[in-house]
């Protein structure tokens, strides 16, 4: 490649790595890190632009609709779902947690399959089996359609038991989303590109909250139309939207470097082959037991597991109780909904800024520590500042989204081997899900409306 052709450079860490086994970080495959400059040709820049515009908008839409669905419960809480179904405060907490129990079941399927395979059992656990053997676009699209149907059915629930069942199923089906997206980004992008991709994904979570709240505010004015409460309309409309996104995903999600929608030229096929050597992941259908065992012996896996768990405690509590916390400050139901918009804006802001800052400084870990400190300060403000200024603490606490983005990037950049990355991903999401499961349960009914113990 001639220097005169250079239009773009990136600093990356280059390692000698083996694509087949993914052992670049093993004790048996020591390598020396060298800081070098990755030079991208004009052809690769054009290919990357094509990939971004073909893949990322649909991933953004999937994450967006997921967080619209997640925000539906906290909005429903101030629109009468508790009174209409005769729930107690503790039962409402369980509605927040049971979602993540379903989510956890989905993730432990992935993890359990890996462990069982290591011990040479023949049990096939569905999620891991399907992720590795089906086109991700087809699989995720079908799951989205089913999840949308369950979402719509939630609007017809009249008892706590019915809501509990639908919330569990929502968690079970939504749990497929992140493992699929994780694998896509890790197989389609270079290491140095993945932090920005994850930042984009987490901006989608914030935008999902913002637009979901705006839509929910409008649907709240349908209260009484056709004899249905506003919260029921919310679930029905979001359910239909999720089904539509499912069909779009089924037909248009780029899930392979040679996908027909990319329309690769011969030169671009060579570029794709070269790029796969950088991320050290080649998607395959074989589960390698030795990579499972190698990952399980690494202390960093379990350190990241604990970090993800603790970072997700407040996320679970805030997603479920945010509107009730705001209402407890004296705001009306509709105003409590509108004041959820800064939650989404803060989540998107911290995700974007943390990724840009980490990329500029080349220090993911230090940047993650910074966002964690900001989030901790937000929780402290929530607990000690009286009255309406508590909202500042609420919005600062969403800095945790930046931490999540950067942790996932650390794994993307430092773990090689397809099976090993799948295993890491499963363990970390189990930790994240445990945190989200516990979060709503520490918001005790006796402490309403401030829930000071959960803060």
Name some characteristics of this structure.
disordered N terminus, mainly alpha, two-stranded antiparallel sheet, globular, 455 residues
Largest sheet: 2 strands, antiparallel
> In what range is the share of β-strand residues?
under 5%
Helix content: over 70%
Mean pLDDT over the residues: 78
The tally of beta strands, per DSSP, is 2
Description of the structure:
With 455 residues, this protein is mostly helical. 71% of the residues lie in helices and 3% in strands. Strands 1-2 form a two-stranded antiparallel ribbon. The longest helix has 36 residues, at 42-77. The chain is globular. The model is unreliable at 1-35 and 112-125 (pLDDT under 50). Keywords: Membrane, Transmembrane, Transmembrane helix, Transport. It is found in: Membrane. Residues 55-455 form the Major facilitator superfamily (MFS) profile domain. One of its GO terms (molecular function) is transmembrane transporter activity.
Helix-strand blueprint:
Layout lengths: L7 E7 L19 E7 L1 H36 L3 H5 L3 H30 L7 H8 L2 H19 L5 H15 L2 H12 L2 H30 L9 H23 L13 H14 L9 H8 L2 H29 L5 H6 L2 H21 L2 H21 L5 H7 L3 H15 L3 H24 L14
Helix pairs in contact: 1-8, 1-9, 1-12, 3-4, 3-6, 3-11, 3-18, 5-6, 5-9, 7-18, 8-9, 8-14, 8-17, 11-18, 12-17, 12-18, 14-15, 14-17, 15-16, 15-17
Compact summary:
This protein is mostly helical and about 450 residues long. It is built from 18 helices and two strands. Helix 3 crosses helix 11 and helix 7 runs antiparallel to helix 18.
């Amino acid at each position: 490649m001639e220097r005169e052709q250079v239009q773009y450079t990136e600093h990356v860490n280059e390692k000698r790595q083996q694509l087949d086994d993914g052992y670049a970080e093993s004790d048996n495959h020591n390598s020396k890190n060298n800081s070098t400059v990755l030079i991208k040709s004009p052809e690769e820049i054009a290919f990357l632009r094509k990939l971004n515009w073909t893949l990322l908008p649909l991933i953004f839409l999937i994450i967006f609709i997921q967080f619209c669905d997640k925000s539906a419960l906290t909005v429903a809480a101030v629109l009468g779902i508790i009174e209409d179904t005769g729930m107690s405060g503790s039962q409402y907490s369980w509605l927040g947690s049971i979602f993540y129990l379903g989510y956890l079941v989905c993730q432990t399927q992935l993890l359990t399959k890996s462990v069982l395979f290591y011990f040479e059992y023949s049990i096939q656990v569905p999620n891991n089996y399907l992720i590795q053997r089906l086109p991700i676009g087809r699989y995720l699209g079908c799951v989205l359609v089913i999840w949308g149907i369950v979402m719509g059915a939630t609007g017809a629930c009249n008892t706590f038991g019915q809501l509990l069942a639908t919330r569990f199923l929502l968690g079970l089906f939504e749990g497929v989303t992140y493992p699929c997206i994780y694998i896509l980004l890790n197989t389609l992008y270079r290491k140095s590109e993945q932090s920005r991709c994850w930042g984009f994904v987490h901006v989608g979570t914030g935008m999902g909250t913002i637009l979901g709240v705006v839509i929910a505010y409008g649907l709240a004015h349908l209260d009484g139309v056709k004899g249905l409460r506003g919260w029921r309309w919310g679930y029905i409309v979001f359910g239909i939207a999720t089904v539509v996104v499912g069909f779009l995903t089924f037909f248009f999600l780029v899930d392979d470097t040679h996908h027909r929608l990319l329309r690769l030229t011969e030169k671009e096929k060579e570029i794709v082959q070269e790029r796969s050597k950088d991320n050290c992941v080649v998607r395959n259908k074989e589960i390698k037991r030795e990579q499972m065992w190698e990952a399980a012996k690494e202390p960093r896996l379990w350190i990241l597991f604990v970090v993800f768990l603790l970072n997700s405690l407040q996320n679970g509590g805030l997603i479920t109780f945010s509107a009730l916390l705001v209402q407890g400050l004296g705001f009306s139901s509709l105003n409590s909904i509108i004041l959820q918009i800064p939650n989404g804006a803060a989540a998107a802001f911290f995700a974007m800024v943390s990724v840009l800052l980490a990329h500029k400084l080349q220090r993911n870990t230090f940047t993650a520590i910074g966002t964690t400190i900001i989030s901790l300060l937000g929780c402290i403000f929530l607990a000690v500042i009286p009255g309406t200024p508590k909202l500042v603490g609420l919005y600062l606490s969403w800095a945790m989204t930046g931490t999540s983005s950067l942790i996932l990037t650390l794994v993307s950049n430092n773990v090689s081997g397809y099976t090993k990355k799948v295993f890491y991903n499963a363990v970390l999401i189990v930790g994240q899900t445990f945190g989200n499961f516990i979060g709503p349960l520490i918001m005790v009914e006796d402490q309403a409306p401030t829930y000071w113990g959960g803060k």
